[in-house]
Design a protein that fits this description.
By secondary structure, this protein is mainly α. It contains five helices and no strands.
């Protein structure tokens, strides 16, 4: 003889189960959870848009970086500290960006110096060409022994 097992529940347990199933009024926790979920869902488009903007900026920087050159520069402790302050303040993303900006600005303010350097370099190149010409004349002359 086989009999199936039927757990016995008392009457109060049955009522609790029925009441739990029948309870349709939302509790405060459920309302709060629902509101939180709606708030999060409402922010998703804004967050996705922000991510898109960040990706676009990154791509633009990468494309424009083809004209940038990387160099190693030794700076003083004070200069390193000042570059770090610019990064910490949020003015630049990295110390390298801050240094690049300051170098460019320094070059702009020293245009007279760089014009003079260009003149001197042109003069040096002219003198080198003159010397090469002199050496070329000597090697093309027949030697008398």
């Amino acid at each position: 003889m086989s009999t199936s097992y039927q757990p016995q529940t008392d009457e109060s347990e049955k009522r609790e189960l029925i009441m739990a199933e029948v309870e349709t009024e939302p509790t405060e926790d459920r309302v709060n959870a629902g509101n939180s979920m709606r708030d999060m869902a409402a922010r998703i488009p804004e967050q996705l848009s922000a991510i898109g903007r960040d990706i676009s900026r990154t791509i633009e920087r990468a494309i424009s970086a083809k004209d940038d050159y990387m160099i190693a520069v030794k700076v003083s402790s004070d200069a390193s500290h000042k570059l770090g302050q610019l990064v910490q303040a949020g003015v630049f993303g990295t110390r390298a960006e801050a240094a690049s900006f300051l170098i460019d600005e320094g070059i702009k303010t020293q245009t007279a110096l760089f014009e003079r350097v260009e003149q001197k370099l042109a003069e040096i190149e002219r003198l080198r060409a003159e010397l090469r010409g002199m050496v070329g004349e000597r090697t093309s002359e027949p030697t008398h022994e």
